[in-house]
Structure formats: C-alpha cells, structure tokens
Amino acid sequence: MNSLSYVSIMKEWDIVAARQMGRELSKQIGFGTVDQARITTAISELARNIYLYAGEGQICFEAIKTLDQKGILIIAKDNGPGIKDLSQVMEDGYSTSGGLGAGLPGVRRLMDEFDIETEVGKGTKISTKKWVR
Amino acid sequence: MNLQIQIDSKNNLSIVHLSGEIDVYTAPKLKEALLPLTKTHNGLVEVDLEKVSYMDSTGLGVFINALKLSTEHDCKLRLVNLQDRVLRLFQITGLHEIMDLNSTIRGVDE
Amino acid sequence: MDTKDLDARTYADLLSRYIETQDERALYGAEKISKSFIRKNILPEEIVNLHIQALLDIYPESRDQILPSMNFLLEAMISYGLAHQEYQMLREKQLEIKSEIQVAARMQKMLMQTEIPEIKGLDIGVISVPANQMNGDYHHFVKDKDGSISIAIADVIGKGVPAALAMSMIKYAMDSFPASRMSTSTILASLNRVVEQNVDPGMFITMFYAQYEPKTGKLHYSSAGHEPGFFFSKKKNRFIDIDAKGLVLGVNQNTTYSQSELLLEKEDMVILLTDGVTECQKDGKFIEREDIVEVIKKYMHLTSQEIVNRVYRHFERLQNFDLRDDFTLVIFKKVV
C-alpha cells in the first residue's frame, strides 16, 4: 500500500471505506489493537463531519516517521461551509450530532496531535497525528 | 424549562407566539428573539402568551428590557392573552399600568 | 509501563480465579481493581483489551471464537471512553465555578449582615434562605435614634455579583437616610432613581419598605411591585392582604410611590415575604396565599422567630428539601 493515499467522502458508505483504509494502515505501521480502534474512530468522526456538513471531501492517510518514532498522519479536508464559531465547537459539552463525547474534542482526545484550519465559505482542513507507543 | 418561539413578521408588524415556560433557562432564548424586533422604528410587536403556562421574574426582566428598547426606538409593544398567574405577576409588579396588556384579537387595530 | 503490566497481571489472575471458583472474593477484587482503574483514568476500551489478553491466556485454543466478538466490544467501548473524559472535564469546570461563587457568596454575607434590632414592644422574627449559594432576596433593619425602625424586604432580579452590588446600594442608602425625616414613598423614589441608573436594562428590584413608630404604633409603608404581605388583626381575628401598589424599582426614572398607614394594636402581626414563599408547590401545583396563612395560623402562638422557623420547615419539607427560589419571611408582633 502507498504511504500516501486517500478516500473521497461523498456517500455515507464512504465513511466505512475510510475506516477500513485507516485500520489497515495503522496495523501495518504497528499500532496495537486499542490504538487501531482509536484511530479508526477518529477517522470515522472526521469523515462523518464531512458527510454531514460539507457534503463532499477527502480523508488522506500517510505513514510518518521521525528519528525515533513512527506514526500515522490523517488529513480531513473539504470545501464546505467552514466552521463559524471554532472555540464553541472545540468546547466540551457542545455537540450537534451524536451525544456526549463525540465531535472534534473527541478526535483530539483519541489522537496525539491535532490541528485545524477553517474559513467560513471556503472550507476546513483538519490534520491529526498519532504515534506508536 | 422549555420554550417554543414562533415569529410572524410582515412590514413593521411582528407577532411572536410563545409556548411553554419562561424562566431562568429559557429567558436568554426569548431575549435573543424578542429584543431585536423592538428596535423597529414605528413598528408594532405583539407577543401572544396564550400558551405560556409559567413565567418567573427572569422572564419579566426580558419584557422590561423589551419595553425600554421599544420606547427608545418608537416601537409599540403589546402583550396579549396572558394566563392568570402570568397576568398576576405583571399586576403585582405594577407593570400592567405602564404596558399594553390585553386580550384583543391579533393584529386588528393597525 | 510497570504498573500497566501489574494491572494486566492482577486482572488476569482475578479473572481466572473467578472462572475457577465463582466466589465472591474474586468479584470483590474486581470491584477494587475497577476503582483503581478509575483513579488512574484507565479508559473502558483499555479494560476490554485487558480482558481480551487475559481470555487468550486462559483459553488459547479458543482464539478464533473469542477475538471477533471481543474486538467488536472494544470498538463499542471507545465512545464511552470519550464521554467519560468529557464528563471529567465538565466536572472540573463545575468545581471551579462553584468555588468562585463561594467567594462571592461569602463576600455578600459579610457585607449584607443585618442584625434584628431590639425595639420596645415588638417581637421580630426573620428567616432568609437562598436557593443556591447567593441570595437574591435582601432584607435590612435600621433602628433610628428616636426608637423607630425601618424595615426593608427586597427581591433583586438578576444574578450573581451585579445583583449583590444592587443590594449593597440599597443597604447603604437606607443606612444614610434618617428614618424619621423621609417618608417611605420618598425613599422608594430615591432608591428607584439610583437603581434605574445603575443596573442592566433587564434587572429590576421589588421592594417593600416600612417605618414603625413604637410610640404611636403606626406603621407607614410603601411598595415597589413587591409581593403583598399580610396583616393580622387580633381584634377582628382576620388576616388581610397589605395591598400597596407601585412600580418595581429600576424601570422608570420618574416613578412616584404612594404611602399607606396601619395601626398596630396589641397582638397584631405583620407578615412580610418574598415570592420564594408564594412560588412553593404542593402536588405539582403552586400554593395559594391562603395556604401560607393556614400554616402561620398553626404556629401563631409561638414567638415570631419560632413562627418563621416552623413555617420555613413546613414549606421546605413540602418541596422535598429543594427550594426553587430564595425564601424570605419576616414577622413582627406587637406584644404590648
């Protein structure tokens, strides 16, 4: 499998494809069972957000390396409406879809590094990394 | 703890239908919906409280705020179809003397 | 990761022991290790993983049967793990906020202290219980040099520190008006101007203000939109509403107030309250003002302080020890 690949999100079913690819890559990189599940859940959350709010977008996967660590980089991007009130969306207790625990704060908890760029009317790009322990 | 707000606007007339309870939890929602309407110059805002089963002093505070704004902006504010307990609150606090409270049929007089 | 291995070992041992013996001690061990997991912030999905490893150890030949269903459970548990972490965060935030309010409440208590003055021939009882940490009700007594007493009872609509500041405005205003020189209606008008200029457009204050002269037994009073009190006439053996009308403080700069008078004779009673009393509920419905009178009748023969205490206990029990609103009750009886 390429170290850089992606899945287009257009139908709900594509979320499953993104999960699958994410889990495969995580296993290859050497993540344990629990972390594989965590990464997959994070991908699921990101893909679902694209599907629900942007209508269309991509989840990109990349195996990454530093001198002493290996890990996975997930990038979720779309040209959707963007996020209006970012600080509110990143706050615990705020949720539009799903109940308590989901949303972007959830993704941040599941992964090690989290970054988000968004512009109203233009789109959103979320990059998130996890390292093998 | 639940409040439904439905607003029908046409030209300078807005009719606000409220349903449920106005208390410390729902008052901010009412404030957000009602106050901007009272800033209409030469406008009329009618609030229908027929389906409001409960209101406490926090709710009254929102109407006082709305009253002050409407006076500032030359807008008329009218409350109609108040239930007994809610009407009592306006009476005890003396607000019934300075506010337009009645049970006329909606939107007829203008 | 020493402790992690220790946990895994302990869990596996407890599990295999329970499978073997099904005894209560192993289950108790499970309870203890569960508590230690929570203390260490171990997430549900990790516990499922511990279980999987332990099971594979115990039943290595059943690997294919166990693994799929347990992995399925692991996935399902991840959302619970996220929810748990969010709860933790919210709980911490809540504790922070609570302690901030505690500081404000202590400040409020200190600044608003009012003593019940000793007035010849008058038995005064007071109870004021906040529904939360900060009290939105306010009451104040000022004894004047000539022996007369000013009594104020108020309900500040608005929350937290701004409301408490409004109360201190009232207190300091009252402390500086010599009771005998200004009428109750003038005082309310002055307070109204001060409040109107200094509070948010949605804030207002209801207030009942009275002056009592022990020499004449006369009670002068005015009301700014406050819940009407009761007057009990011993001679007529009747409770009547103290009907005083006036606009709440803080709405209109130029509001004027009217003033009325009551003559207190021996064993007459005046009962003042805030709407925290009238908003009590019984069987899901709000009580009537008559219900309050009924309860007071039961304890009328006691001292004023005893009466207010018992009335409060009665309604506190009625609300299942969870009051919706701040509850304030003031009773004074003319005893000679």
UniProtKB/TrEMBL annotation, chain A:
It comes from the Bacteria. InterPro entries: HATPase_C_sf, HATPase_dom. Signal peptide: none annotated. It holds the Pfam family HATPase_c. GO terms for molecular function: protein serine/threonine kinase activity. The keyword Transferase applies. This is Serine/threonine protein kinase. It comes from Ornithinibacillus halotolerans.
From TrEMBL, chain B:
The gene is rsbV. Gene3D superfamilies: STAS domain. InterPro entries: Anti-sigma_ant, STAS_dom, STAS_dom_sf. Pfam families: STAS. Positive regulator of sigma-B activity. Non-phosphorylated RsbV binds to RsbW, preventing its association with sigma-B. When phosphorylated, releases RsbW, which is then free to complex with and inactivate sigma-B. Residues 3-110 form the STAS domain. It comes from the Bacteria. GO terms for molecular function: anti-sigma factor antagonist activity. It comes from Ornithinibacillus halotolerans. Keywords: Phosphoprotein. CDD domains: STAS_anti-anti-sigma_factors. The keyword Cell cycle does not apply. This is Anti-sigma factor antagonist. Belongs to the anti-sigma-factor antagonist family.
UniProtKB/TrEMBL annotation, chain C:
SMART domains: PP2C_SIG (SM00331). Residues 119-334 form the PPM-type phosphatase domain. One of its GO terms (molecular function) is phosphatase activity. Pfam families: RsbU_N (PF08673), SpoIIE (PF07228). It comes from Ornithinibacillus halotolerans. Keywords: Hydrolase. This is Phosphoserine phosphatase RsbU.
